[in-house]
UniProtKB/TrEMBL annotation:
It comes from the Eukaryota. This is tRNA (guanine(37)-N1)-methyltransferase. It catalyses: guanosine(37) in tRNA + S-adenosyl-L-methionine = N(1)-methylguanosine(37) in tRNA + S-adenosyl-L-homocysteine + H(+). Residues 513-531 have a biased composition (Polar residues). Belongs to the class I-like SAM-binding methyltransferase superfamily. TRM5/TYW2 family. Residues 133-400 form the SAM-dependent methyltransferase TRM5/TYW2-type domain. Residues 491-531 are annotated as: Disordered. Gene3D superfamilies: Met-10+ protein-like domains (3.30.300.110), Vaccinia Virus protein VP39 (3.40.50.150). It comes from Asbolus verrucosus. GO terms for cellular component: mitochondrial matrix; nucleus. Its EC number is 2.1.1.228.
Length: 531
C-alpha cells in the first residue's frame, strides 16, 4: 500500500439538491490484520486505537474464537511501520509480523457516513455548513440560513435518516418576535407531529413544540440553576415556560411560584407538574411578567423574607431586563423590615458586542435606573448565540435600596435639569464642568489624567487660545452692534424723504436702478457685519 485512501464521500456528490444515495458508493483499499491461532481478546487492546470506525461497520470480523480479520483506518495505518514501536513489539510477542497485515478491498456506501461528512460533501465548497440542529424528543429543529434554503429538502432528508429517533425535521421560518416566544416552522421531512416528550434533570416534559418555547441547548444552564437552589428554598419563576426550572426545583422540595403569559405554556406547565407528581410545592399563574411581579411577588415576598432563601428567575433574555424596574419601590420603606437575607435575582439577557460583560451591566443599570454594581454577585456567559451575540446570566441581590426605591434619585446615567453639575466629555484631554461646581475650581478646564508637564502645557496653551478667541468675538460683537445702530439711524432719516417722493409720484414705483443700488449697499453692509 502506497497511497492512503480518502474516507470522505466522493467529490461528485457535491451540489445535490435531491438525495441520490447510490452516488456515495466508493471502493477503497483497507489494511487488515489477519488473526489466526491467537485469542482475539488479547489482540484488540493493542490495536484498538487503529480500528476503522465508520457508521454501520464492524472493524472486527470474527470467524471463530481464534480467527478474525481486524480492519485498520487507512488514514492512520498504511503499512506495518505506521504502528508504534511499542505496539509492534507487543504484536510480535503474540507471533504477529508484517506478513499478517494485508490489503482488503471495501466499498463505502451512504450508510457508512455520518451527518456532518454527508452535508459537508453535498453543499458547495463556497457555502458554509448547515446551521447546527437541536433534538427535542423525536423532532430535529433547524434554523437554516438564507443561502442554505435551496438545499433544505436534502438537508432534512439526511437528518431524518441519520439522527437516531428522529421522526420529524422542522426548519424555523421566522424569528421569535411574538408575545409567546414560539415561532413559525415548516416540516422538511417526516410526520407533522409537534407533540413531543423530553427528559431533563430527572424530570419528564411534554409539550407542543409549535406552540411553546423550548431550547435543548439550555439543558446545562437549567441544571446549574437547579443545583443552585437548595431544598426548602423559595423560587419565583417569572417566565416559567413549560417548567424547565420550576418542575425540577419543586421536585427537590422547594416552594415554587411559576408564571407564564402563554396559555399553552401554562397548560403544559400544569400537565408536567402532574406527570412528575410535584403536588403542592408548585403554584402556577398565567399572567404578564410585570403583573406577576407587582401582584404575586409583592404579596408573597415579605412572607418568606429572612425566613428562607428566595430566588427570582427571569429567563426571557430578549427583554427580561425591561421588567426589572417593576421591583423599584415595590414596597414603602416602612413596610420593609431589616433585610438580613435579600432575595437573589437571576436574570438573563443578550449582549450584542465584544465587551459582553460591560454590555450586560449597562442593560441592567439602564433598567434599574442607578448603578447596582455592589449588589451583583455574578455575571456569567451562558452560550454564544451568534457572532458578537452572547446569552448572559446576571445574578444580583434585590435589597432594600431597590425594593423601597431609596436610590432611584441617583441615576447612574441620565442627568437631569436639577443636577448641580453635568460632566460633558469634549476630548481626551479635558473635562468641561458646567453648573454651580465650576465656582469650586480655579479653572473651568480640568485636565483629566494629565500626568506629565507636557499635557499640562498643552492644556494651558489651549486655554490661552480660547481666551483670545473670546476677546476677538466680544470685539466683533461690539462692532456689529455699532453698525446696526448706524443702519437703523440711516433708515429713520431716509424714511420721511421717501414718503414725500411717493406722494408726489402717486403709485409710481422708484426706478429699478436706484432700487438695485440701495439693495447692493445694504447687502454689503450686512456682509461686513458677519462674524
Amino acid at each position: 500500500m502506497t497511497e492512503k485512501p480518502n474516507l470522505k464521500p466522493p467529490d461528485h456528490v457535491c451540489g445535490q439538491t435531491v438525495l441520490n444515495k447510490t452516488l456515495f458508493e466508493k471502493t477503497i483499499t483497507v489494511p487488515c490484520l489477519v488473526v489466526k491461532g491467537v485469542k482475539i481478546s488479547t489482540v484488540i487492546p493493542i490495536v484498538k486505537k487503529y480500528l476503522l470506525k465508520l457508521e454501520n461497520f464492524k472493524p472486527v470480523k470474527t470467524i471463530n474464537e481464534q480467527e478474525a480479520e481486524i480492519f485498520f483506518n487507512p488514514e492512520l495505518v498504511n503499512n506495518w511501520n505506521d504502528l508504534s514501536v511499542e505496539d509492534q513489539k507487543s504484536l510480535q510477542e503474540l507471533s504477529f509480523n508484517e506478513n499478517n497485515l494485508v490489503d482488503r478491498s471495501h466499498t463505502l456506501t451512504y450508510e457508512n457516513y455520518n451527518v456532518e461528512s454527508i452535508l459537508r460533501a453535498i453543499l458547495p465548497k463556497n457555502v458554509e455548513g448547515s446551521s447546527s440542529f437541536t433534538k427535542i424528543g423525536h423532532i430535529v429543529h433547524l434554523n437554516l440560513r438564507e443561502h442554505l434554503i435551496p438545499y433544505k429538502d436534502i438537508i432534512g432528508e439526511v437528518l431524518f435518516d441519520k439522527v437516531p429517533g428522529c421522526r420529524t425535521v422542522v426548519n424555523k421560518v421566522a424569528i421569535i418576535d411574538n408575545t409567546y416566544r414560539n415561532f413559525q416552522m415548516e416540516v422538511l421531512k417526516g410526520d407533522n407531529d409537534m407533540h413531543t416528550k423530553v427528559k431533563e434533570n430527572k424530570c419528564t416534559f411534554e409539550f407542543d413544540f409549535s406552540k411553546v418555547y423550548w431550547n435543548s441547548r439550555l439543558c446545562t444552564e437549567h441544571e446549574r440553576i437547579v443545583n443552585m437552589v437548595k431544598s426548602g428554598d423559595v423560587l419565583f419563576d417569572v417566565f416559567a415556560g413549560v417548567g424547565p426550572f420550576s418542575i425540577p426545583i419543586a421536585k427537590k422540595g422547594c416552594l415554587v411560584y411559576a408564571n407564564d403569559l402563554n396559555p399553552e405554556s401554562y397548560k403544559w406547565l400544569n400537565h408536567n407538574s402532574k406527570i412528575n407528581k410535584i403536588g403542592n410545592n408548585l403554584k402556577t399563574f398565567n399572567k404578564d411578567g410585570r403583573e406577576f411581579i407587582l401582584g404575586v411577588v409583592k404579596e408573597l415576598l415579605l412572607e418568606h423574607l429572612n425566613k428562607r432563601n428566595v430566588f427570582i428567575v427571569m429567563n426571557l433574555p430578549a427583554m427580561a431586563v425591561e421588567f426589572l424596574n417593576a421591583f423599584i419601590n415595590l414596597y414603602k420603606e416602612e413596610e420593609l423590615k431589616q433585610i438580613e437575607n435579600p432575595p437573589i435575582v437571576i436574570v438573563y439577557c443578550f449582549a450584542k458586542g465584544e465587551d459582553y460583560e460591560s454590555i450586560a451591566k449597562k442593560l441592567l443599570f439602564d433598567s434599574i435606573g442607578f448603578d447596582i454594581g455592589s449588589k451583583i454577585i455574578e455575571i456569567f456567559r451562558v452560550r454564544t448565540v451568534s457572532s458578537l451575540k452572547e446569552m448572559m446570566r446576571i445574578v444580583f441581590k434585590l435589597d432594600r435600596d431597590i425594593l423601597s426605591g431609596l436610590k432611584t434619585n441617583l441615576p447612574h446615567k441620565r442627568k437631569h435639569a436639577h443636577d448641580d453639575s453635568i460632566s460633558v466629555k469634549k476630548c481626551n484631554d479635558f473635562d468641561v464642568t458646567m453648573g454651580k461646581n465650576k465656582k469650586k475650581t480655579n479653572s473651568v478646564f480640568k485636565v483629566a489624567g494629565a500626568k506629565s508637564l507636557k499635557l499640562k502645557a498643552k492644556a494651558k496653551a489651549v486655554k490661552t487660545e480660547l481666551k483670545q478667541i473670546n476677546i476677538k468675538n466680544k470685539s466683533k460683537i461690539l462692532e456689529v452692534d455699532k453698525e446696526l445702530v448706524n443702519l437703523q439711524e440711516k433708515l429713520r432719516n431716509t424714511a420721511p424723504q421717501e414718503k414725500k417722493e411717493k406722494s408726489k409720484s402717486g403709485s409710481k414705483l422708484p426706478s429699478k436702478i436706484n432700487s438695485n443700488s440701495d439693495s447692493n449697499v445694504n447687502v454689503e453692509q450686512l456682509n461686513a457685519m458677519q462674524l
